[in-house]
Amino acid sequence: MNKVLHYLRQHDFNVTLVRNLVAALALLLCAQGASSASISGRTVDADGAALTKVSVCLALASTPSTCERVRWTDRKGAYTFNGLKPGIDYIVTVNGDSTASNRKFERHANYAWQPREHSATINSKNEKLAVGDFVGKFNFSNFQRIVSLSAADFPELSSIDLTGSYVALKVFISSGKLDEPPQTIFLGRVLEREKLEIRASVPLSCSVIEYEIFSSNLALSGSIGLLQ
Amino acid sequence: MINSKKMSTRKLEIAESISDMKKLLATLGMTTAALFYSSLSGAQELGSIRLTDVIKSQGTGNIDLFKDVSASQLEQLRVDNDGQLVFGVDINEAANGTEKASTQAVTVKYVVLTIGFEDGSQQVYDATSGWFTETFTLVAEAPGTTRSTYYTLLGESGSSRITSNNTVQDTFDSTLKIAITETLFSDGGNNANSARLQIGLLQTNESLGDPEAFYDFSAGFEDLALLNAVDASFIDDYGAGYEEAPMLVLTNPPVEVDLMAVDTWNYFPTANTFYLVGYEDLYPAKGDYDFNDLTVAYQVKYGLNVDGDVVAIQGLAYLITRGSAYSHDWHLGIDLPANTSGTLSCTTHFPPDYISRGFTTTLSQDCSSTAQADISGNLDLIVFEDTLQLYRDPAGSLFVNTASIPGNWNLRYFDGPKSEFRLDLASPTPMASIMSAPFDPFVHVLDTNRLIRLLEVDPSYQDENGYPFGMLLTATWKPAIAAYNVGIPYQNFDPFVQSKGVTNANWYETYVSDYIVDIPTADVWAW
Predict the structure, then answer these.
(1) Tell me: the pLDDT tens digits for B373-390?
(2) How deeply is A109 buried, as exposed, middle or buried, from its count of CB atoms within 10 A (0-12, 13-18, 19+)?
């Protein structure tokens, strides 16, 4: 600790401020730790066998499409969300996180789930709530669920001035054939990074989503991997 | 090519002072017009004039204005348009990819107007002196890949503009404006005696897909007219083809942002591909499992406003096969927030030969006799109603595009009806609150009164062995011949199912040709 304080002094840090911040953080952690309420459950197949590495999303009931936390089921197909606050309505959704980064690591991408979500309300700070199983069934279909993309998936945007000239974003997947043009998912102007929201529906066989960012004096390209 | 710096400066200036300028221009225009008309004996309001010369199939036009107008008429039109000559362009592009009847476009590479005068002098108006259209975009010229800013001309075909007042307003799609500083005609003056417009369209690099494929030039003749101010204003305000055009930028954007206007589109699955869904309609019995009882291709797109919220949901669907004695309604369901309301439209179109075959007396009709104009809450749209009546086999078979003839397995493919639908939402709706693609494409089997849904929508729609009754297929899908289990032509299908998708994930890419109907690819059936 003394070494840390010495380092901070050497680098003109306000040591008092840092001390206060550390204390506040500790208090916050203690306050969070005060609640030991949890929601837990399992993902299984139709025969009741555990399904592992399934992504489970915890969202507030008021914003069901925004995952507050994501857990991956373990070898027993189990997951738990700990430290939940009482008096809050939650939604637990299987495969609820549709971000590209999440999709990279999941198994059972082509399973259909029943149910898809559970509603759960934590009533006391020590409540251990177990919701019903999510039962997964192998799905024959060619398309898996949607991939949600935001400005974070296009890191180049953070260094581009969007308020001046027209800056376009093209999101596409390759047709896989030389003589066929790419298949466009989104094509349009990016006005505000914070408001950029795109949905992509891509086949299971698709391992990468590509993009171009361009203006009259700019041409960038990149890709978003969908497989580990 | 447009000087982008100059353009953005110009746009800003216009945006900031547009109302003042409008007033000023209106006053100046009226004053000038009044002075001019008073100097012309017997002057009357001049109508727009259609020109003889056109932009030809190679994408260039060499337009002799004096074939159709006199110097006096040119001057009247110039004054009427506040010192500009305004050309109307009728866009006639092939409906390929995202270009279709309701929206199509070309890109302008160069414009040069040369006016000769009685004293032998010439005045040349080109990019330096200034011309513009009402829209521009960023595209790459073939064979390059570097995108630059170009003015564009947009349009539509085959629609009747109910608000138009004459054939010019009904026909012409976009305007091209050239500022003319010289007086072209006056009593005793040095009058114009020739005027030649040279215009070249850009050959965009279509291999890049959109926006280049949309803003390409596909060898159509583009007709031209010289417009008076009333017709020019109508055509500009109408904005033919604007809404569905990708990457459309307005040269003179409105000062106030309309949050109900579509700014961009998010496509499902993509702008130029379709979901293909096949059904077994004997549910809950497994049946022959040929998966061709009804095959439908569909695509959907969200129209997003400048904030990224959804303001319109639009779709297109085609019937591909009907291999059943049963009739069906094909629905598309999309769950929306509970308080959603909007205006819905859906039209089924028939291939042109359906009338001559006696299948129909009209080329289009409402998708459903019970179609609702307004919705509240979830969307449940009957996109194709009563498929047995809607989709018939010209050869007289009960089935369409699924049957076989001994020794001649592969029949000619017969185009199916298509339906276009659109929901205009009453207020911007967050994308996350709308059901995800591929949505809920389901069949109502009229003979059994059963519904059949995709497994991913409702996992209960499968038999005791895990076989579904509705399945999303690939865009290149070749249906099995009627009564052949899909596992016969697609021999990797059963191993794929038995391994629960671990092996043979690309099972649909290999098939035995004798047992499939060799339907064409989407560029043929998506008529």
Answers:
(1) 677 788 999 999 999 999
(2) middle
C-alpha span between A53 and A68 (Å, rounded): 18
Q: Are residue A28 and residue A42 in the same domain, yes or no?
A: no
Helix axes B71-80, B4-39, angle to 10 degrees: 120
Same domain, A44 and A134: yes
- Answer yes or no: do A154 and A205 share one domain: yes
Instruction: Say whether the ipTM exceeds 0.90.
Output: no
Give pLDDT tens digits for B319-356: 999 999 999 999 999 999 988 999 999 999 999 889 99
Total structural domains within chain A: 3
Does residue A41 sit in the same domain as residue A129? yes
Comparison of pLDDT for B57 and B446, the residue scoring more: B446
Q: How far is A202 from chain B (nearest CA, A)?
A: 7
Q: Name the H helices within chain A.
A: 2-10, 15-33, 100-103
How close does chain B come to A87, measured CA to CA in Å? 24
Q: Percent of chain B at pLDDT above 70?
A: 89
Per-domain boundaries in chain B: 4-250, 264-525
Closest CA to A157 of A206, A100, A215, A93: A215
Q: Residue A206: which domain range?
A: 147-225
Tell me the C-alpha distance between B67 and B78, whole Å: 17
> What DSSP element (H or E) covers B374?
strand B374-376
Contact B8 A198 (CB under 8 A): no
Are residue A45 and residue A134 in the same domain, yes or no? yes
User: Scanning every residue of chain A, which has its alpha carbon at the shortest distance from the alpha carbon of B499?
Assistant: A138
Residues A76 and A26 in one domain: no
- Are A130 and A45 members of one domain? yes
The Cα angle at residue A132 between residues A130 and A134, in degrees rounded to 5: 125
